[in-house]
Amino acid sequence: MRKSKLGILMLVLALLLVFTAGCGGQAEKDQGQADTEKIKVGFIYIGVPGDAGFTYSHDQGRQYLEKEIPEVETAILENVHEGADVERSLEQLIQDGCNIIVANSFGYGDAVLAVAKKYPDVKFLHCSGLETEKNVSTYFGRIYQARYLSGMVAGAMTKNNSLGYVAAYRIPEVVRGINAYTLGAQAVNPNVKVKVVWTNTWFDPTKEKEAAKSLLETGCDVIAQHQDTPSAQQAAEEAGKYSIGYNSDMSKFAPNANLTSPVWNWGPYYVKTVKAVMDGTWKSEAYWGGLEDGIVDLAPISDKVPADIKKQVEAKKKEMTDKEWDVFTGPIKAQDGTVKVPEGKKMTDAEMLSFDWFVAGVEGNIGK
Amino acid sequence: MESATIALLAAAIVAGTPILFAALGELMAERSGILNLGVEGMMLVGAVLGFIFASNTGNHWYGLLAAMMGGGLMASIHAFISVTLRGNQVVSGLALTIFGTGISGFMGKSYQGMPAADPFRPIAVPLLGDIPVLGPILFKQDALVYISLILAIGLWYILFRTRWGLRIRSVGENPAAADAVGISVSRVRYICTILGGMFAGLGGAYLSLAYAPSWQENMTAGRGWIAVALVIFALWNPLRGLLGSYLFGGVEALTFRIQTIGIHVSSFFLAMLPYLLTILVLVLVTIRLRQEAGAPRALGVPYDREER
Q1: What confidence score (pLDDT) does residue B37 get?
Q2: Residue A25: pLDDT band by 50, 70, 90 thresholds?
Q3: B216 and chain A: CB distance < 8 Å anywhere?
């Protein structure tokens, strides 16, 4: 009996040792920075950094931040599901000394606002959120601009004038992406149609692949997607057709099929924001940056795409970065042919953020 | 239209195959009297181990082997608890599912989002693949689809046409009587449960190595539970299980194809249909057939020799 108790004690001690050793590595990093206010950024992720999707793109941003401002320390809590655990996880990061918190999912909103009230000195950055507070900023990117550019590539490469779009949920963000993609494709190929299939998932490889296959069977020869898994890309690769990725450069999953991907690039925003906090110039804002800030971009375009198309894409990109033009500029017709945005008019941010109709050329039911 | 129907049926078979593997395993275990609700967990462990071994060896058959070992190992825990310790099978099975979900996520963490090294690809069977209509549906699939077909027919044959099958079924119906004629109840139950776990592991590996060749946490997305329901739907008959799993797979495939032809039916509604059917079948079974074709009578009941 005595012996086994001793054994358990040893085990506990050994575990503690391993645990503290693991933590020690991080804590040592910023000694010697004692003079300036220590900045520690805590990231709370909806997924895991290896998913090639949304969380992956955020973690790339975190690594970029560490590289650009070496004195900043970061911490991660991954795979935190939207729900009861969020508040506790946020508080844990704050207990660990984080004074900036990055929350990368829409559904963290309520928890972020509640915890922000309790800790007025901690700054919160809430991705794709709706509400700001004195210490809560929201941030997102105009990924629709990159979607438009990827649509141009798809429109130029289709042979049947039939594009497939594996859509996630019926929410304005997804609808906006489909519309931008369609307009981009029509800009280079007026006869093009975009077929939409909804999966009602962010993350279900088999469902998303099945949806892509169903589109390929109806004759679509370029497949685009809005989910976080590369399975739609794999379906296109197996069928010998083309695909457009999303979130990160997905060409490694479908080297022959993938033409390009609209990508997130959160790094510059994190660097800019953390610098502002260090300078004391930070103020809460609702940030929605575009191509000009580099927060959204287009991954390198495949060599299969002709050079003159690449040139056209570059030219359009420049128009957007120079703010001469934006995607949802009239005339834009809805599916039923009514003019929704008259010539010379531009949709406002508020209108774009509540998109609930498809542009002409989209074949699919928005199912309100 | 014809080609669309063929494509739909071919997709139904692909979508039904992982469920079929798992359902066959569960069917075998239940026929011997062991209810194993850990299917989802065993599938996940199979999926992750299959993916890890296939990526590291570059050979999908090693992955398959690892998946079967993993599923079998998980099932042996369940067998130990329910046969040797005569524990509560529902609790043990549920624990297995939760454990499998956790450990598969843990093991697969660094493999998330990696493309599969050597996925299973469709192989057309010579001659049979050229039969019009039936060829492209049945005989232009990957090797695992053929294996699942052979397993389903083989299991039916073993259960209903051999002495071995009779032993399994008698252990599931009346273990005391089986014991009295010299059949080792524990041995039969151990074998059936562990083999069943191996089948579930195969089902998981089908997802991560053939269907959507990649590993994503929780990628079975409830298919293990469908398999459990399917066993009831199939009235514990492997051939009905074969049809049932293709029916379930067909509904999954139909969900998206119905959208592409422009009919608007809520995808949530379609996803619900097979379960509605399961409930209906259960109701019919209990009203009409009662004894003849119902569940093995000793299902879920631990066998204790002393209690006779």
Answers
A1: 96
A2: very low
A3: yes
Domain that holds residue B294: 2-307
Please compute Rg for chain B using Cα positions. Answer: 19
In contact, A43 and A76? CB cutoff 8 Å: yes
Beta strands in A227-299 (DSSP E): 242-244, 258-260, 262-264, 286-289, 296-298
- The pLDDT score that the predictor gives to residue A8 is 64
Contact B266/A at CB under 8 A: yes
Contacts of B207 in chain A (CB under 8 A): 205-206
Residue A48 φ/ψ, nearest 5 degrees: -115, 150
H or E element that contains A359: none
Give chain A positions within 8 Å (CB) of B260. Answer: 195, 197, 214-215, 217-218
Q: Which of B105, B110, B256 sits opposite A211 (nearest CB)?
A: B256
Residue B295: its pLDDT value, please?
A: 82
Say which range, A35-44, A313-322, B14-23, has the weakest mean pLDDT: A35-44
Q: Stretch B59-74: mean pLDDT, rounded?
A: 96
* Distance from the B93 Cα atom to the nearest Cα atom in chain A, whole angstroms: 24
- The class level of CATH for A143-261+299-363 reads alpha beta
**So what's the pLDDT on residue A19?**
52
B217/A215 touch (CB, cutoff 8 Å), yes or no: no
Domain count of the fold of chain B: 1
Least confident range from A49-63, A136-150, A254-268, B187-201: namely: A49-63
Q: Using CB atoms, which residue from B105, B253, B264 is nearest to A367?
A: B264
- C-alpha B66/C-alpha B70 separation (Å) is 6
The two beta strands, A332-333 and A339-341, are: antiparallel
Domain boundaries of chain A, sorted by first residue: 37-141+266-293, 143-261+299-363
Residue B270, pLDDT above cutoff 60: yes
pLDDT at B222: 85
pLDDT at A88 over 90: yes
Residues of A in contact with B2 (CB under 8 A): none
Q: From chain B, pick out residues whose CB is under 8 angstroms from the CB of A46.
A: none
Chain A CB contacts of B3 below 8 Å: 217
The 8-class DSSP code of residue B216 comes to: -
Q: How far is CA B118 from the centre of its chain?
A: 23
The CA distance from B119 to the nearest CA of chain A, in Å, is 11
* CA–CA separation, B72 and B204 (whole Å): 12
Rounded-to-integer distance, Cα B258 and Cα B57, Å: 40
Mean pLDDT (whole number) for B98-123? 87
Instruction: CATH number of the domain at B35, please.
Output: 1.10.3470
User: How far from the centroid of its chain's Cα atoms is residue A122's Cα?
Assistant: 24
Interface of A with B (CB under 8 A): 48, 50-53, 56, 79, 195-200, 203-211, 213-215, 217-218, 229-231, 234, 238, 252-253, 363-365, 367
Average pLDDT over residues B149-154: 96
Q: Token digits for A4?
A: 């086994």
pLDDT at A28: 40
Which chain B positions have a beta carbon within 8 Å of A203's beta carbon? 216
Question: Is A204 in contact with B115 (Cβ distance < 8 A)?
Answer: no
Distance CA B263, CA A344 (A): 36
The structure tokens listed for B48 are 């992750």
Q: Is B259 close to A365, i.e. CB distance below 8 A?
A: yes
Q: How far apart are CA A7 and CA A91, in angstroms?
A: 35
Residue A24 has a pLDDT of: 40
- What is the least distance, in Å, from the CA of A108 to any CA of chain B? 21
B256 vs A: CB within 8 A: yes
Q: Which is more confidently placed, B5 or A122? A: A122
Superfamily in which the A37-141+266-293 domain is placed by CATH:
Response regulator (3.40.50.2300)
